[in-house]
Amino acid sequence: MIARTLFTAFKTSILPSSSSQLLPLFSSSPCRSVTTLVLAEHDSGSINAASLSAIAAAASLSKHTSISLLLAGSGPSLHQAAQHAASCHPSISQVLVADSDKFTYPLAEPWAQLVQLVQQKNGYSHVIAASGSFGKNILPRAAALLDVSPVTDVVAISESRQFVRPIYAGNALCTVRYTGADPCMLTIRSTSFPVPAKSIELASNKSAVSEVDLSMLDVDSIGKSRYVKQTSPEAERPDLANARVVVTGGRGLKTAENFKMIEKLAEKLGAAVGATRAAVDAGFVPNDLQVGQTGKIVAPDLYMAFGVSGAIQHLAGIRDSKVIVAVNKDADAPIFKVADYGVVGDLFEVIPELLEKLPGIK
Ligand SMILES: Cc1cc2nc3c(=O)[nH]c(=O)nc-3n(C[C@H](O)[C@H](O)[C@H](O)COP(=O)(O)OP(=O)(O)OC[C@H]3O[C@@H](n4cnc5c(N)ncnc54)[C@H](O)[C@@H]3O)c2cc1C
Question: Which residues form the Electron transfer flavoprotein alpha/beta-subunit N-terminal domain (predicted)?
């Protein structure tokens, strides 16, 4: 019975297309021309999904916006990514490439100086990055160098200088108007700016790719941070921030060993694994899996929460999920107030039943 209820949630949220998504408001500012610099992240020769969302946000600033994409790095994968960038969205007019071993790893200090250099040369009206660790690290530093205040965590664009952003752990939305000097610098939540399928297909027109002149950049004198190493999850799982299905475990799992049930279920569903802060603090999983106000913001088609109470800080990260399923043995747990499907029951009975009865989607 429980498995059937949850299978219904799984079917209705995953199987149909998600064409009913609300798109951010579109409006153009009649009096100012909009020229936007998007700070892009690339991986294995492609622009990553969050940066594609930043491009989608930039394209919604104005009907006649001109977008330049800034990529930095070194070696062949940078130039491969530049070719991908040149054809990944029809609104991109130019791809700027900063090729130097100083940019092999995305350290904030040289990147911030690069943004300052490019901005001073080209005078963009807007600078945008996705609100991930890359954008949150670089954009505020660049804003300080350019002496402007950034607007962070934008979830909708109502005019080219008017934005909506969450406050009070996502319990209220605030509309802000930027009245400062150019550039207007934004970080955007990628979950709020879905990438239209057609922009993922390669655009027929390739935009120009040009190298940034780095002779004025004194990168040797900068850098309080140093690259040490990058660790990636071993298993091939979808990226938590962009996954269509997320399976999350909370303190109710009790041990790291038990948490493996969540991983098994996620594997079966082709889902990303998430965790509450309590589960992370208890050492069940590393903190890059934390979902919530101080973790990742997710907006999957299906969010499944096991042994999660539903604290406001956790809910702040899952509000945009299309279907929320909660399993908790406490009928009064706050998670049930936001859940579309709820099971009051013991997760140690429910998960094994799901593992047995749910079909895999791989
Ligand atoms: C500034 C600040 C920022 C924070 N940021 C975040 C954040 O980003 N993300 C986040 O998650 N939290 C965050 N927190 C912490 C948050 O307030 C909660 O403490 C946390 O979310 C609780 O995690 P939990 O639901 O796993 O644990 P608990 O609140 O302890 O809930 C465990 C739940 O498991 C249920 N349970 C137990 N055993 C079983 C069982 N066998 N079967 C079924 N259900 C069972 C219980 O009924 C309970 O509801 C933040 C807190 C602060 C102050």
Answer: 36-221
Higher pLDDT, 359 or 93: 93
Q: Where are the beta strands (DSSP E) in the chain?
A: 35-39, 42-43, 46-47, 66-73, 92-99, 126-130, 151-154, 156-159, 162-167, 172-177, 184-188, 208-211, 245-249, 272-275, 302-306, 323-328, 341-344
Task: Look at the alpha carbons of 199, 242, 140, 153 in this order and tell me if their dihedral is positive or negative.
Answer: positive
Which residues are known binding-site members for FAD? 251, 276-277, 290-294, 307-314, 328
Q: Is residue 30 part of a domain?
A: no
> Domain end: 196, 221, 246, which one?
221
The interface predicted TM-score of the complex, written ipTM, equals: 0.99
Is residue 2 in some structural domain? no
What integer pLDDT is reported at residue 233 of this predicted model? 63
Tell me if 160 CB under 6 Å of ligand 1.
no
Domain of 109 in residue numbering reads as 35-221
Residue nearest to atom 49 of ligand 1 (CA): 309
pLDDT (tens digit per residue) in 64-80: 889 999 999 999 999 99
Residue whose Cα lies nearest atom 41 of ligand 1: it is 346
